[in-house]
Every structure is written in structure tokens, then in C-alpha cells.
Amino acid sequence: MQQYKKTQYKLILVLVGLPARGKTHISYKLNRYLNWIGYKSEIFSIKGAQQKDDKLDQIIDYELEIDPENQQIVEVRQKLSFQAAQQLVTFLQTEGDIALYNGLTNTKCDRQKLKSFFKEQLQLEFQVFWIESICDDPQVIVNNINESKQSRFKDKTIEQFMNHINVISQDYQTLENIENLSYIKLINIGKQVKVHMLEGYLCSKIVSFLLNLHANNRQIYLVRSCQTEYHILDKIGGDPELSAMGKQHSQQLGDYFIEELKGNKNITFFTSQMKRGIQTADIVGEKLGIIALKTKNLDEIDYGICDGLTVKEIAAKYPKQIKERKANPLEFKYPRGESFLDVIHRVEPIIYEIERSRDPVLIIAHVAVLKCLYAYYHCNQISEIPNIEIPINCVIKLVPIPYHCLESRVIIK
């Protein structure tokens, strides 16, 4: 059973912006991040409300069907937007802590109605933070339509979408200070940012995360440091050096990346400050002509008093801890050691660095750390992290794209 953090108050994040401005993409990334750091978060949208309404034709995608001249579609979209707001209220009044709303918020009137609805319906303390995505770059808009719209609406041309958007934009009203709202404006995918009336730790954290987002697709490589003598002796933790086999595998790993990266030296390259991580990264980096940034954020989980012991020794000396670990592997920590929750907190700055990078990212680290990073990109429940498989001598290649993440694995033999 996953345990979630609790907020001092309920938080509603409202997306604002014309179609094809990346609102859905932003809400997806924010929701993934908030759940990963331990909050109970969920997205409420026209699409989500439609999927829960058995009376509606599910073939028509009302989130993307934006023809403003079709009155029937306009009315259905308004109805679904209201249903999404109702579902949001129910979520926050029961199990949820943070809700993201992606409905109709294009005008001051829309936003005032939404504010009044939340105030009337939510019988608890809450805060609303508005996130507006503005884009006037035609190429970015076309890319957004191609990537996230055309795949779901193949019978519509880009010209038809653009015409519909142009009609809607005539009534669109950007967020203004006079509305007395707490908000952030992301202009042209973060090239310019405006923040107004920012309040509270959590909203500040969300703004910090949003400042690192961009729309570039790039590869992320997750690799475990290679074999050490501790692997051979079945010991956990410690800070051993690579074995002879580990050095050989590091050479093979470098050869793989020479072929994979094809001479590209614009790589964001991280490793830990542990000997096995540094040695693996040094061998790979020498072949590629690049140097890894070494950070303690990527060090292996701290096994506390069990560091350097074999699995059999731990079972003999600390049977109570073994039972506790089996009962709750996510929150368990060996005495004076770390839990997976501690590791998530420790590697969070690395997520910011990965999100910010527009170049391929290579991370050579350790199994517990890589489980946490992997879970972030695949939207795993954090309770699933201890059971994620991260094999040694394996390159995990992730390619984040709108709404999910592609993955491939290559075993280095």
C-alpha cells in the first residue's frame, strides 16, 4: 500500500492556453513528477470526463474536436468541462492532495465561474495556481499538432486545426494581474516566464520544475556501474573498485556508445562519486572523449550498519530487519541507512538536470538510484520501485515523447 505525502491544503493547478500550446503535455509531466515525489495527484480533463460518460460517442474526441461553429460540439465540451471540475472536487474531498484541471479556461468569465465553483463546492482549505502556456511560434504549434493531435485525429488536416484555433483565439483572454490570481506564464516553451503572486513551498517547487521543461526529444541512457569484487562475493553496498571483468565490460560499454552516439560529444554525462561508478564512467568517457560530472546524488543507497556484509551475514545477524524489509521495501531502511524514499529525495535534482538538458543524457550509477530514475519516466507507482529490474551490463535507452516513454534494452556481452 503506497503512502502519500500530505499537503497543508489541497492544491488545484489549472491549465490555461489555446489548443496546441502544450497544456496536455505540461499537465502530464507535472502529474508524473508530483506522484513520483510522493503526492496523490491526478489530471481532470475533457478527455477524462468523456471516457467516464457512457452516453457519449467515444469515437469523437471532444478534447480535440474544437470546431467553434458546431454548436452541438461546443455544448458537449462545456458539459464535459463541468463534469471534469465535479470529478476534481470529489477527488480532493476524498483521497487526493493535488489536482490538475485541463478544461475550458480561455476567458476571464470561464475562470471566474471556475473559481466560484471551487469556492462553493470544496468544503476544505485549498489553493488555486494557474499555469498558462502561450506560444506564437508557428513551427512549434505545427509540431504540437503533428505529435499529439494528428495521431488521435487522422481525418483532420493541420489547416483545419489551425483555422479552428484562429477562430477560438479571437475570444481568448490571457491571464492578467487584475484577475487577482496566482499564476505562471510560460511563453514559447519557457523562453520567457512571468510569475505573479506566488505563494507557498509547493507552488514554488512546481514553478522550479516548470522552468526546466522543454519540447525537445532526446535519448536518456541508464547504465549500472560494472562488476566489482563485491558482486562476486555477494556483498552489498561498500565502495569497491571494478573487478577485471568489470573493467572489460566497461571497455565494451564504451565501444557500444561510440557506435550509438556516432561521434556526438554534446552529451550530458553524470556518474556517482563511488569508485565503481567513477571507474566505469572514466573508461567510457575516455573512449567518447567526454568527462562525466561526478555527484553524490547518484551514490548507491546507504545500507547503514549492513554496508559491506553478504546477504547471508545480514540474514543471520539481522533477521528482524529482513522481515521488515519484506513487509515494506519502499520505506524500509537499515539502521543508520537510507530508504528508497530517501533516495528519491536525493536524486530529485538529477531529474531537474535531465529535464533541462536538450542533449542526450548518459547516467552511470547504481541499482537503487536507477530504479528511482526509471520509475519517474515510466510513471511507476513509487511503491513499485523496489521491484523494478535494472540488470548489470545492460543499457536502458529511454526516449520521452508526449504522454509516454519509449524504451529499448541492450545487453553488453
UniProtKB/TrEMBL annotation:
Any Pfam family: His_Phos_1
GO CC annotations on file: cytosol
Binding residues for substrate: R276, E300, I301, D302, Y303
Sorted UniProt keywords: ATP-binding, Nucleotide-binding
Highest rank taxon of the organism: Eukaryota
Keyword field contains Thylakoid: no
Gene Ontology molecular function: any one: 6-phosphofructo-2-kinase activity
Alphabetized InterPro entries for the sequence: 6Pfruct_kin, 6Phosfructo_kin, His_Pase_superF_clade-1
Domain 6-phosphofructo-2-kinase: 5-215
One GO BP annotation of this record: fructose metabolic process
Name of the protein this chain belongs to: 6-phosphofructo-2-kinase domain-containing protein
Source organism per UniProt: Paramecium sonneborni
